[in-house]
Design brief:
The complex is a heterodimer of chains A (276) and B (224). Chain A has 276 residues and is of the alpha/beta class. Chain A has helices spanning 42-50, 74-79, 97-106, 115-129, 146-160, 176-191, 203-209, 228-237, 241-246; strands at 3-13, 16-27, 31-35, 55-64, 67-68, 82-85, 92-96, 139-140, 164-168, 195-199, 213-218, 221-226. Chain A has nine helices and twelve strands. In chain A, the strands form three sheets. Chain A has a six-stranded mixed β-sheet with strand order 6-9-10-3-11-12, with helices on both faces. In chain A, strands 2-1-4-5 form a four-stranded antiparallel β-sheet. In chain A, helix 4 (115-129) crosses helix 5 (146-160) and helix 5 packs parallel to helix 6 (176-191). Chain B has one domain (2-171). Helix content of chain B is 17%, strand content 48%. In chain B, the strands form two sheets. In chain B, strands 1-3-5-7-9-11-13 form a seven-stranded parallel β-sheet, covered by helices on one side. In chain B, strands 2-4-6-8-10-12 form a six-stranded parallel β-sheet, with no helix packed on it. In chain B, helix 1 (174-181) packs across helix 2 (187-203). The longest helix of chain B has 17 residues, at 187-203. The two termini of chain B are 31 Å apart. The chains are: A alpha/beta (276), B alpha/beta (224). Chain A binds chain B through residues 50-54, 73-75, 77-79, 83-84, 86, 89-90, 92-96, 99-100, 103-104, 107-108, 139, 156, 160, and chain B through 173-176, 178-187, 189-190, 193-194, 196-201.
Chain lengths: 276, 224
């Protein structure tokens, strides 16, 4: 991967416009801190770029090294080197972790991986992220703790060695030691040229991985870009200075009415109102 | 104990379970069949039952398990329903004594336009205090014409008990599918992993190696 170019990208979920014209370029080797208030479109952007069918692209473009990304299926995007660490990795009952890993690795190869090689690389990966390799024989994410799920995401990143990684709140649910381990893995891959876009609400992860750029998404748009110091400032001061100094108004989330018979947890609560 | 059953006469029913026992039954009948099975589990005994039906014909099973005081039963039913077949499984678990325990798990794949019904029912009679029961049914439909029904029912006549039930029925969970595909698995591969996954948790509990082999081959032959 050399460059991911996003321009004027708009997308909706269940009829609610969430992305309202994202413009963002990510260059090879970047470690980009992606910030923004809750519900303003950060995770949606990742999901749209990865091809989650829950979101509908309504306009704009996203290209990877000049090639249209949005027309590719999710697995094709993965094979182009994209990877997303899920904020909430789903439990997949009945699917054995090991079988899933093997299928993921083999999807990127012409010849299936040998048993020995597979064993060696998974053992190493488990060690790197601090999980017990006996978990490979368990059902995927089923019965894992929050922290184990996050480590399991990083583990897959190591196994699949993607070139562009979207990490969606990978630090939530991790204890201090785990956070260190995860950031070491990120640093190691960065040295090898892997590109990262990282969503986090806590400065600790950014301190450890030292992003070279920051972008802030507000109201479904990239409102501000800067270097590493911008991420630190937001951690310290919050988002209120955006309006005072840059005239970026943060629209309040308008809560959608939830009626009986609907699952409240499933209703998306995107920012609504006029475009700024 | 392993039974491969093609003829209902081979089954001796009702069965009084004298000792703790694990029974694994593989139904492989070429013709339409209907079976009735009943077990009585005496006090302090344990029954574990796995019924696997991959037969290529319509099928109907009626299972009854009676539980005395402090006894337990784990029942697992696994089914594949092919085109044009009508398959119905009834599992009546009756808690007749105090502190009796049961779990019923039914899992199936409806491959075509057939009808697949899981009708589970747990009864806890008045007086069977501290009994504990759960009914679960899970069906994955592979065709838009699949007709499936999952009804894990509870009939509770005592106050001091634990009882729960759950059913899931449908095609693929889009969230699971997206997750697997985001790692590079094609839609077909992802679906086939998830489909096998409907049955595997139950099939994994088989202890007879011949039976394991049989179910594995049958699943591979499906080439989902």
């Amino acid at each position: 991967m050399k460059e991911l170019k996003i321009s004027g990208l708009t997308a909706e979920a269940e009829g609610n416009q969430i992305l309202k014209g994202i413009d963002l370029d990510v260059k090879a080797g970047d470690v980009l801190a992606l910030l923004g208030p809750n519900g303003h479109g950060k995770s949606t952007l990742f999901n749209v770029l990865m091809g989650n069918p829950r979101y509908k692209v309504t306009g704009g473009k996203a290209t990877l090294d000049g090639e249209d990304l949005l027309s590719l299926t999710t697995d094709e995007r993965a094979k182009k080197g994209l990877f997303m660490a899920f904020q909430n990795p789903p439990d997949v009952p009945g699917v054995v972790t090991m079988d899933f890993f093997k299928a993921g690795i083999n999807a990127r190869r012409n010849k299936p991986i040998s048993l020995f090689e597979f064993y060696k690389s998974t053992e190493n990966a488990y060690r790197e992220v601090g999980l017990d390799s006996s978990m490979a024989s368990r059902n995927l994410n089923e019965g894992y703790s929050g922290g184990e799920k996050k480590r399991n995401e990083i583990l897959q990143m190591v196994l699949l060695s993607p070139s562009l990684c979207f990490l969606d709140e990978i630090d939530s649910g991790l204890d201090v030691d785990a956070l260190k381990q995860v950031s070491e893995v990120i640093q190691e891959m960065r040295k090898k040229g892997t590109t990262f876009v990282i969503i986090s609400h806590y400065e600790k992860l950014y301190e450890l991985v030292e992003p070279n750029r920051t972008a802030v998404i507000v109201n479904g748009k990239v409102a501000l870009e800067g270097d590493k110091t911008l991420a630190s400032r937001i951690s310290r001061d919050g988002y209120s200075f955006l309006q005072k100094e840059y005239g970026v108004k943060i629209e309040k989330e308008e809560k959608k009415q939830v009626s009986i018979g609907e699952c409240a947890a499933k209703i998306v609560l995107p920012p609504q109102g006029n475009k700024d | 104990m392993l039974l491969t059953v093609t003829n209902p006469d081979e089954l001796i029913s009702p069965v009084l379970v004298h000792e703790d026992c694990k029974e694994e039954i593989f139904f492989d009948s070429p013709k339409e069949r209907s079976f009735t099975l009943s077990y009585a589990v005496p006090a302090n005994r344990r029954l574990e039952l796995i019924l696997v039906d991959f037969s290529r014909s319509s099928f109907s099973l009626s299972l009854q398990v009676d539980l005395a005081r402090n006894s337990s039963a784990i029942v697992r039913i696994v089914s594949l329903s092919h085109d044009g077949e009508k398959k119905t499984y009834r599992a009546d678990i009756r808690h007749l004594g105090e502190k009796s325990f049961s779990r019923t798990y039914m899992a199936g794949i409806n491959l075509g336009n057939g009808t697949l019904s899981f009708l589970g029912n747990s009864t806890i009679i008045n007086g069977a205090h501290k009994s504990d029961t759960r009914q679960e049914a899970r069906i994955t439909n592979l065709s838009p014409e699949s007709k499936s029904e999952a009804s894990p029912a509870l009939c509770i006549q005592d106050y001091d008990v634990k009882a729960s039930h759950g059913a899931s029925l449908g095609a693929y969970d889009p969230n699971e599918l997206f997750y697997l595909m985001s790692r590079g698995l094609s839609e077909k591969e992802a679906k086939s992993l998830i489909t096998e996954g409907t049955l595997l948790p139950l099939l994994q509990t088989l202890s007879d190696s011949k039976m394991k082999e049989k179910t594995k081959t049958a699943l591979q032959e499906l080439s989902l």
